[in-house]
Every structure is written in C-alpha cells, then in structure tokens.
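Example 3.2
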Amino acid sequence: MKLQVDREIWQEVFSAARRYDEDRVGLGDEFIEAIDESLETIVLSPQTWPVWPGIKPTTPPIQRYVMDRFPYAIGYQVLDQVVVVVVVAHAKRRPGYWR
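Structure, written as tokens:
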C-alpha cells in the first residue's frame, strides 16, 4: 500500500509542530514523529479504522484515525492501493472545520 500526503497537509503539520515547540523545545519533533508513526500504522492496515462520523458520505469513505498522545485525527481515503490523507485535523477545534 502506498501513501499520498499533499504538500498543504504537510505545511499544516509543520505549522502545528512549530506551535508545539513554542510550548516546549522538542515537542514539535515529537509531534512529527507521532504523525509519521500514525501514518505507518494506517498504511499497514487501512481498513481498521471507522468512517469519520458526522460527515457527508463519500465514495470511498473518509476514515478516521485518532492519535493517542496529541489531540489530532487523520482523515484518509483508500483509493486502489493508495492511502490518500485528506486532513490532519485538531480534535479540539470546531467539528468539521476542515471540510
């Protein structure tokens, strides 16, 4: 299974990492590492996580992986043999702000 993450999503991730570093030096690196580990987990078994609740059904569905340590969720779709990340969303913001 391949992974596709657009540049705009990485820009948001790195922006969040910078904000974490403002709280504590090195925390941003830990966030990036947690994102990388989450993406690896998703790619290994993409059908494991549920459809993102409360959003309009899509084909293929947007599935949601909720991170453990950081308040983020990763939304993705499986297209053929590619996991396409559509959002890395902060869980404490207004629900669905990323749509």
